[in-house]
Design brief:
The structure is a single chain. With 250 residues, the chain is α+β, with helices and mostly antiparallel strands. It contains 5 helices and 21 strands. The strands form 2 sheets. Strands 1, 2, 3, 4, 5, 6, 7, 8, 9, 10, 11 and 12 form a 12-stranded antiparallel beta sheet that branches. Strands 13-15-16-17-18-19-20-21 form an 8-stranded antiparallel β-barrel. The radius of gyration is 21 Å and the shape is elongated.
């Protein structure tokens, strides 16, 4: 009798889901999405080190994110509510803590129907919701307050000798100004922040000449124009075209 009641309840839930869920327009997918449920289990039970997330980039038709252990990216197709990303590539790190990365990739690689219900993004396979994500909260001025010191640039750890400084950035929201050090010179620029998309304009620096200018040149080249910015485990991450280019810590 209990089994019969469970089956009836499950059918009712799936029926309500199919009635209320709606296909998702592309413009509603452009934010960062954090995993909440995987195969009816809370993500927090399966991923103790880092919660998986995904980011869609429709300009280059690429999905990227973190699997709970490794960064990943890959091309995707999306149309009529149907999502396909069969060739996702990821890093090969071995991480501490619990991480069901294999199950996450298996579900993400399989063709899914995308829908939205109560503000949550749902991946459905064989008429069953298998992945449920919630939208990441946009960054605010309180999230970005303070001086941020560069940790990595284009994947390499930052190392400076006595003649240089570690590059920094600091946001001034009332004046829409961002400033800091490039390792050799100081800089100032205008910035605009909307839904975790940072636009840096009119960046100018002082004109000192140092023995080593490579880091400054690379930093200034990256930290200009339009970029994605996210706060991940107290690390400020800047990406362009879904590629991680700068990370900062306070």
């Amino acid at each position: 009798m209990k089994t019969l009641r469970y089956i009836v309840l499950l059918i009712s839930v799936l029926f309500v889901f199919q009635i209320n869920a709606q296909d998702v327009p592309k413009e509603q997918l452009t934010d960062k999405w954090i995993l909440k449920i995987i195969n009816n289990r809370p993500a927090s039970e399966l991923f103790t080190n880092k919660t998986p997330y995904i980011i869609f980039n429709f300009d280059i038709e690429q999905i990227s994110g973190n699997s709970g252990c490794n960064m990943f990216s890959g091309k995707f197709n999306y149309g009529g509510g149907k999502f396909e990303a069969p060739n996702i590539e990821s890093g090969k790190n071995i991480c501490s803590g619990s991480s069901d990365e294999t199950q996450f990739f298996k579900l993400l690689n399989k063709s899914s129907k995308l829908s939205m219900m109560n503000g949550e993004l749902i991946f459905t396979q064989d008429d069953k919701p298998v992945l449920i994500f919630y939208r990441s909260k946009p960054l605010s001025s309180s999230d970005l307050i303070g001086v941020w010191k560069l940790q990595t640039i284009d994947g390499d750890n930052v190392k400076v000798d006595a003649s240089l400084q570690i590059p920094t950035l600091e946001f001034n929201f009332p004046d829409n100004q961002v400033s800091g050090n490039t390792s050799c010179n100081t800089y100032n620029a205008l910035f605009f922040l909307s839904k975790n998309v940072l636009e840096v304009q009119s960046l100018t620096t002082t004109r000192m000449v140092c023995d080593k200018m490579d880091m400054e040149q690379e930093f200034v080249k990256i930290f200009n124009g339009r970029m994605d910015i996210n706060l991940e485990d107290d690390i400020l991450v800047i990406r362009k075209d879904n590629k991680e280019l700068l990370t900062f810590t306070r």
